[in-house]
Amino acid sequence: MEPWPGVSLVGLLLLLGQGPSQTHSSSGESTVARQTQQVLQTLKSFPFPCKPKKLGWSVPSKSVHSLRPSDIKHVAAIGNLETFPGSGMVDVEKLQSIENEPQHVCMGVMTVLSDIIRHYNPSVLMPTCSPGRSGAAHSTDEDLWIQAKELVRSLKENPQLDYENDWKLITMFFSNPSQCHLCPSDEQKRQLMRHMEKLSGILDYLHQEVPRAFVNVVDLSEVLTMAHQHQETGLSPAPQLCNCSEDSTKLSKAIMQWSYQDSWENLLASSKFNKHESFAVVFQPFFYEIESASEKSSPQDPTTLALRLWNSMIEPVGRKDEPLDGTEQKTMKCPSQESPYLFTYRNSNYQAKRLKPIGKLQVREGTVFSCSDKDPSDTVPTTVHRLRPADIKVIGALGDSITAGNGAGSRPGDVLDVLTQYRGLSWSVGGDEDIRTVTTLSNILREFNPSLKGFSVGTGKENTVKASFNQAVAGAKSDGLAAQAQKLVSLMKADKTINFQEDWKIITVFIGGNDLCSSCNNRVYFSPQNFTENIKKALDILHAELPRTFVNMVEMIEIIALRELYKETQVSCPRLILRNLCPCVLKFDDNSAEFAALVERNRQYQKETEKLIESRRYDTRDDFTVVLQPFFENVAMPRTPEGLPDSSFFAPDCFHFNVKAHARSAIALWKNMLEPVGHKTRQQNFEDKAPIVCPNQTLPFLSTYKNSNQGYGTLMLCKDKAPSASPPTSVHALRPADIQVVAALGDSLTAGNGISSQEGDLSDVATQYRGLSYSAGGDESLENVTTLPNILREFNGNLTGYAVGTGDINSTNAFLNQAVPRAKAENLASQVQTLVQRMKSDHRVNFRQDWKVITVMIGASDLCDFCTDSNLYSAANFFDHLRNALDILHREVPRALVNLVDFMNPGIIRQVFLKNPDKCPVHQASVLCNCVLTPGKNSPELARLEAFAQSYQSSMLQLVESGRYDTREDFSVVLQPFFLNTRLPVLEDGQPDTSFFAPDCILPNQKFHSQLSRALWVNMLEPLGKKTDTLDLKAFIAMACPTQDEPFLRTFRNSNYTYPTKPAIENWGSDFLCTEQSPSSSVPTSAHKLRPADIKVVAALGDALTIATGARPSETNNQNTPWRGLSWSIGGDGTLDTHTTLPNILKKFNPSILGFSTGTLELTAGLNMAEEGARAQDMPAQARALVERMRSTPTINLEEDWKLVTLFIGSNDLCHYCENPENYSTEEYVKHVQRALDILYEELPRVFINVVEVMELAGLYQGEGRKCAMPLAVQNNCSCLKHFQSPTVMQKLKKVNWDLQSGLSALSYQHQYVQREDFAVVAQPFFRNTLVPLNERGGMDLTFFSEDCLHFSERGHAAMAIVLWNNMLEPVGRKTTSNNFTYSRTKLKCPSPESPFLYTLRNSQLLPDQAEETSKVLYWPVVVAAIGGLVVGILGVMLWRTMRHSRKGDLPANTNTAAF
Q1: Which of 62, 528, 596, 764 has a CB 3.0–4.6 Å from the CB of 757, allowing a cystine?
Q2: Where would I find the H helices in 1308-1407?
Q3: Residue 247 CB neighbours (<10 A)
Q4: Cα–Cα distance, 522 to 911 (Å, whole number)
Q5: H-helix segments, 477-519
Q6: How far apart are the two ends of the chain, measured CA to CA in Å?
Q7: DSSP character for 1026?
Q8: Alpha helix stretches (DSSP H) within 893-939
Q9: What is the spatial distance between Cα 1460 and Cα 1454, in angstroms, rounded to a whole number?
Q10: Is the pLDDT of residue 1436 over 50?
Q11: When comparing pLDDT for 1177 and 1073, which is higher?
Q12: Is 656 a catalytic residue?
């Protein structure tokens, strides 16, 4: 639709009909004719929104029910329209000249209507308005008869009109002598029917006399009344205003308007006029908006009335619902291609309804009540924060027609009955019948207290006895709420059946719908600020006057959903009533600015109300509170199974609630009353019939701000706070009241950095608010500060150890909170030692007798720096550091329960920090927490961060579930996983809520710490296996209590929890977490700038350990099968995910790497030149063979490709040294290895050589169950070990072992090797101090060895590959010199942007002279280390087991021999 501009009212007032039957003469005739032509010309020049040509009309219609505008030949009217006052200057002399010609105004309307039709049919004739009695005030029935007859005569005599065949559009205007036809009384209804019967006689005459006619019946009573209310000229008397005997409300007026229209439509739809093809009569309603009629300053002008008539004609009957609005812009509707005709009752498919309702009696909705605990408090509570439902003695309500119950019990279709106030069915205060048949808040409360007073019953208005304390007023707005409140107070004070001072009262306030529905008419008066101010006045009265009162302030309903019901044409609703009751919600287009403003106003009503309640204005007394109940904040329109709006939830007017909606609202309100503040349901789905929620032990009271743990304090409700009868001796029988000491270890979070810092004060984050720390703070009391110590002090007031105030670790305030800001896992052991010393030395702690709770949280700072040195901060190291710290506690501290708490997910910190650049110091991201805050979204670095965090968490779980700390009765470590998953609060705009964080947006503030404390406490009382692992920062965390059946802090034993057995490891692969995987930008020419991805070829020299003899069980029982594809230094079977080998690691950097071995056959050995039984003397031959094979391999570019060669030899040399010391001397060993290196030096360009130091002997021992035949292995393969019982020989062997290592390492410092740019030899010393692999029971772990107990298994090869790789990434002089044979998928180190190269002597910044000095410093102590190495360990175990088994007889012979 497009706007239809207004027409000058002066011109319209002077319009004269120019039809052939009208001849008039007066002094102003020429002027009037000239002005008429000017107005008509002006009308033609207006933009016309419709497009008649597109409709393709040509053949005239034969039926009135398909009559199109283009078919109309003549427009006429009967009935006198009064003169309308208008804007602008009006010539009084001219008005007086037409005083006796009221039909001139009729011509004004008809001329506009005719001009509209002329766009469809240019041949339409000039309109006709039949003259009536001159000077008549109103068109009486007699006058209409005269005009009707005159109209018929003029039509018949008009020569331009084919009377029988041309279609005529006739409008009959009439008005009622008074406005009492809209009064809701039986007498007025009877008078109306008599009047309608008289008018129908005129219509019957037109039906008989006029062929081919479409007749509009228009009642102008309201229009004329409006005109005379504002008329200043006094032309004619106004219609008689009616003073209805009954109260006239907006609702009653809306219903009577609709009823009047409905009566006309039913009369005409069922009449004979609707059954003919050439004649039809349609009632066209002309009603004003009810509020507009009384409040607007001017009535409608003729132009608008003409447009209104046109628009009504092309709207289907039953949808002509929009009342006139003096402020609306004039608009014109257009016929559609689907419905191009004027609408009649027949083509509108309008079904005439019987005057009586056809619906069945409204079925009431009861609810099953199943709450078992219905008892009141033991004594009458003195605080509203401990108010149980059964304590309520009195109920009341304030509000509007929803609370008054209008239409709640009306039968479907009985629209007039909506005026009945069914207060006994009202959702918040009705008390009809009981909960089994009528669901209301009163009936719910009566189940707890049958003596409840104040509820309303039956029907009636607020001033009736049955209304009782339901003082809601139908049609009320917020400005009337204070008067209701004062009336309620007076009634309560006067009621002798209640104890005004002592009885607990509950009052429900619900208002706002009528304010919003009228708000567009006066936005200032109905502003959110005024709305809230009105509510405040009412609540102030209740607060000042009522003792012992709980007030439900129900949030203003989201009324916008009403539009769905109004717009759905398939749902039968009295839309005129809806439009009148709530015009501001219904009359604007969806995309209009007015509608957007209304939606925002609705939201602001809600927000401002919430702000008022949250101001705590009404929490100044202990016996009074106001609680916002927000379940109406978001309301979805209920729908039928077909998807249509479900009108069965509404009264017959489709605006008010019926009994079903009242019942659902009552249950929703009750649920809100029990839900904690801050965690209440904020939406209502009427479709769901929810059960009645019951109070429980955790939440037994009606929820208030205070008992909902809002703010920083917490209400402790536990009854059983007694300690054990005698101090427990077992940690598994520890009650909260038994705890006498609290302590904590950790980082900045536990130290309390920034907890109380104000927003924007970044520098204050350095302040350590230890007294507020979640796990160790003890400031004030639990009522104001929620911390674990303050919770425990509710059970034991003599608790000690907690921190207070502020200060660092050395301050007296810190006490046993030994957390250090920015501490990492490596610092934890130091904290533990300090803590233990403090507990031992402090007189307040009985170290041996007192039970202690120690809370440990660590890891966040490690993650902040992990990317700077991923090896230093590896999961394996994190595990070791944590284990070391817990080991000290386990060893040193008696009577202790240790809480091990997960650290916060770094993803949470990222979201808060990075999504709030205006609040968070993003410019300091790299300083505050570089590795967490700087990685880009979806970057490899971010994926690596997540992997590290998960690895840390897995390490913690693995450590606790190993059972390592459950070996003593008085000590246990329990993992409290509440921090594992954190739900970040999000604001309405989708941004993370920073109100839980300190100014740095990283550390938690007191709001956050309060939730941490509650969550930790709940975790401590939850059994293992059922602990909460999610922290929702905005959720209500109910304070759990120990019970008679479960009185203890939970451990694995009192939880009947069995630690899960470790799943069988399916493979010995590794996780690859490195992000720095790129090769050099160009192929490097220096071995000292060689990145892993630059390696193109791998090769190996060595013995059986390099060809992986016996690495996997053989199907042929041949233990000597070489599993070359699994070899630690050269194997390439599978991928790194399943097989950890050096080539598989390198494949992650360069998938095209060459030379690795696969399978078991020699044909697939690749560049693995190792041979079983090989010794140092064989190395030169292997070196030459390697060179030849490289040269003969066409895929290898010998000159350009970088090659990595690993040489590992010496085990066989060491084993046979005793046979011939001269041949197996250190000098001979070094000479042969050096010759091999020289061959590679001379023949191969671009080569990096790992020289792995000889291992201390392994594998020659007595296995469990006599699995390994040690004596035979000694005799055949390692003759030196025959003398293991000789200290002198073994000491000599240890010396030789060390000499071989020392001599080999010295080779890497040869001048020629250091001098050449593309050649490097690096000694990898990880085998120097190899430790005996032990299982969990402390015995030797055989899984690292093959079935012959001599060679390594696949697991052993994986462990060797990991430590070799890590050695390659460690600087010379700082390389790891031990291998403890522990397995972890996350032990692989990574190159970093700062250290991207494989380390050599030069890029380790060790010059040759420095290297020599370093070598001496590093290697001479090996003698000492070697003594305690693997040989000693193996031989010791061998000796012990041999002696043990020798008592049981000799071992059987084994004919198999094996060698390294």
Answers
A1: 764
A2: 1311-1315, 1354-1368
A3: 12
A4: 43
A5: 481-494, 513-518
A6: 96
A7: S
A8: 906-914, 925-933
A9: 18
A10: no
A11: 1177
A12: yes
Using left for φ > 0, alpha for ψ between -120 and 50, and beta otherwise, residue 197 falls in alpha
Report the C-alpha gap between 1061 and 1081 in whole angstroms.
48
How far, in whole angstroms, is CA 403 from its chain's centroid? 34
Q: What angle do CA 1009, 1015, 1017 make, to 5 degrees?
A: 105
Query: What is the spatial distance between Cα 1361 and Cα 1368, in angstroms, rounded to a whole number?
Result: 11
Q: Looking at per-residue confidence, does 910 or 1450 come out higher?
A: 910
Give DSSP secondary structure letters for 14-28.
T----STT-----TT
Whether 741 contacts 852, CB under 8 Å = yes
| Segment 115-124, tens digit of pLDDT | 999 989 999 9
Contact between 776 and 770 (Cβ < 8 Å): yes
Higher pLDDT, 837 or 1336: 837
d(CA 412, CA 252): 18
Helix (H) or strand (E) holding 1445: helix 1430-1446
**CA–CA gap between residue 539 and residue 611 (Å, rounded):** 14
Instruction: Identify which of 1375, 1363, 1378, 1368 has the alpha carbon closest to the alpha carbon of residue 1070.
Output: 1363
Q: What does the pLDDT read at residue 427?
A: 98
Q: What is the mean pLDDT of residues 682-700?
A: 86
301 has pLDDT over 90: no
Helix axes 940-960, 925-933, angle to 10 degrees: 80
Q: Fill in the amino acid letter for 1450.
A: D
Answer yes or no: 1103 catalytic.
Answer: no
Query: Distance (Å, rounded) from C-alpha 828 to C-alpha 1344?
Result: 31
Cα torsion at 740, 745, 749, 752 (round to 10°)? Answer: 50
> Taking the alpha carbons of 1163, 1167, 1168, 1171 in that order, is the dihedral positive or negative?
positive
Residue 973, SS3 per DSSP? strand
CB-CB contact of 422 with 408 (8 Å): yes
CB 397 within 8 A of CB 471: yes
In which element (H, E) is residue 257 found? helix 250-269
- For residue 1366, the 8-state DSSP code is H
User: 114, 139, 348, 401: which one is catalytic?
Assistant: 401
pLDDT of residue 430: 97
Point out the catalytic residue in the list 143, 166, 417, 515: 515
Q: What is the pLDDT of residues 1264-1293, one digit of tens each?
A: 444 443 433 444 566 776 665 667 776 777
CB 1001 within 8 A of CB 921: yes
pLDDT at 1448: 37
Q: Which two tokens stand for residue 1084?
A: 């490097």
Tokens of 689: 């019939």
Strand partners, 406: 421
pLDDT tens digits, one per residue of 679-690: 899 988 888 889
Angle at 631 (CA atoms; ends 628, 635), nearest 5 degrees: 140
Distance CA 1051, CA 1397 (A): 48
CB atoms within 10 A of CB 638: 22
Identify the three-state secondary structure at position 327: coil
Cα–Cα dist 2/334, whole Å = 10
The structure tokens 């916060």 sit at 904
Angle at the Cα of 941 (from 937 to 946), degrees rounded to 5? 85
Examine the pLDDT at 981 and tell me if it is beyond 50: yes
Per residue in 1281-1324, pLDDT tens? 666 566 777 677 777 778 888 888 888 788 888 889 999 999 99
DSSP string across 645-658:
B-GGGB-TTSSSB-
Report the distance separating Cα 1154 and Cα 1096, nearest Å.
6
The residue from 181, 228, 543, 656 that is catalytic is 656
Query: Residue 156: how many CB atoms within 10 A of its CB?
Result: 12
Q: Which helix (H) or strand (E) holds 280?
A: strand 279-283
Alpha helices per DSSP H over 1193-1247 = 1211-1215, 1226-1243
| Cα–Cα distances in angstroms (integers) from residue 518 to residues 116, 286, 498, 527, 602, in the given order | 33, 21, 38, 11, 12
pLDDT of 361: 61
